[in-house]
Amino acid sequence: MTILAELNDLTKCFGNRKVLDKVTLQIQESEILALLGPNGSGKTTLLKILAFLEEPTSGETRFQGETVTKKNAERMRLYSTMVFQRTVLFGASVYDNVSYGLRMRKMPRNVVEEEVKKALSLVRLEGFEKRSARRLSGGEQQRVALARALVLKTKLLLLDEPAANLDPKNTAILEEIIATANHELKTTIVMATHNMFQAKTLPHRVALINDGRISEVGASTEIFGKLSKNLASFAAIDNTFAGTARIIEGGTTIVDIGNGVQIEAALQKQGETSIFISPQDIILSRNPLKSSARNEFKGRIAQIADMGSLVKLTVDVGKPFTAQITKRSFNEMALNLNVEVFIAFKASNVQAI
Amino acid sequence: MNEVVDGIVKALQLIFSGDPTFYGIVFRSLLFSGIAAIIAALWGTPIAMLLGLRDFRGKSIVKGLFNALIGMPTVALGLILFLAFSKAGPLGFLAILYTPAAIILGEAVLVTPLVVSIATTAIEAVDQEMTNLAKTLGASESQASIAVLREAMNGVVLSNIASFNRAIAELGVALLVGGNIAGLTDVLTTDVSMYTQRGDFRYAIALAIVLLVIVFGINLIMISARKVKILLTLGRMPQ
Questions:
Q1: Cα–Cα distance measured from residue B226 to residue A351, given in angstroms and rounded to the nearest whole number
Q2: B139–A48 C-beta distance less than 8 A
Q3: Domains of chain B, residue spans
Q4: Would the pTM count as exceeding 0.90?
């Protein structure tokens, strides 16, 4: 496998704060690599270094066999592009946004028009050229940002939490686009995520990062199969729990994750195990639910995070569960810190990792 | 009161009469203040970009200084420049005292803090990731700075309008370094002052009306232009 980029013994400090600590990582050509780690683990900084937007404090960055320095960083940036976690758009039309990079590269006008059209088609925004980019919905804006990067056909595409502020429908569209870009354009993709499920399904390899250090790198099946305890110990990764499983009558499994919380899962597991429930699969209610969900817990809202059109809530039921709801639901339900709520999810939503 | 009403009526007659002296004063005001605003924009905008985009030691002091200089009394600056441009002064060799060049330069100095302060605020208000965005799409450092400037354009244009309005409406600098020489360095403000002192209210009121029309008119045009831009943008939106 050809190595496209590598970080050798790389450290990055901002003042006294060490954000990356002796990171060594190789990125293979045409792969999708996930950087999986909690918020504040150094993922964004690592991506910015690969985008040649930040210089390391010490260590080396190499791209296509060449060491990246201050002198050649501007030239190197033509081979790599990054889509930021928070969508940043120019106050202009979708066409002007998507064509920006091509115009910086002085491509002929007819080529620019054609490539923009293709890129918008790839992200399912055909006919959006003349629309004002900032007036689109959150999901559409994210796709414009992605089209703006894909149109450049760079060797390396860096995505920082690409689905962080998206609802499940737009997340699915986005994941399909990423997979297509990798498969058809052979683009090497490095994506930072704290979403366990996304890290499992999309990438070829996963690098676990925490406190600025990479603890493990390997094929996603290997990482998730062998190292479930390490993953579950990432305290800040939403809804991952280590526990003891036992199969019960009916063929389902009860996983005891401690503090009196027992989860019923449509799995066949016995003994020590790690499980994950997607925040989007958790239903939140002010009152007890009468539903087919096998898991229902009462708790209090311990944390609220505004993610634009979505809200992430951490509910303490003895163990912290993260649920993701729309802002509209959040307002209609008049939710706030310390409010008593009920969470529910189906046994089939529980995934083994 | 009758004198004032009489003055207003005669002023309107003067405005529409095509009087060359009157229109010469108006033209000089627009010209001198226009050039001063352009000069201030040319040297003020790069300063604003530096303050808005870069971090350096003493930045807050520099910003504070420009903010404070916005309120510089025009007579005080006029006096400083008079002393500088006079024969014995450090810039006496330029020999520009009592010439249009002195007024233009003086007004440019006067309004530069205004340009810098407003434009810096506008640039700082642009999303901080904009520079990185432009760079990651292939822009060079200077191209990235231009991208940020483009995003801040509304604020930068506002800074230029504000500087022109301040320049055309000021008296102290024009009077002290220009000398209010008829046909050469007399402008709207210096002549309003002179004709009022003489008791010739017809001329004074006419000149004041034109000054007000210019200042308010420009603002009105800019507001209308923004509204048209918004409507055009909405017009392009699919129904």
A1: 54
A2: no
A3: 2-236
A4: no
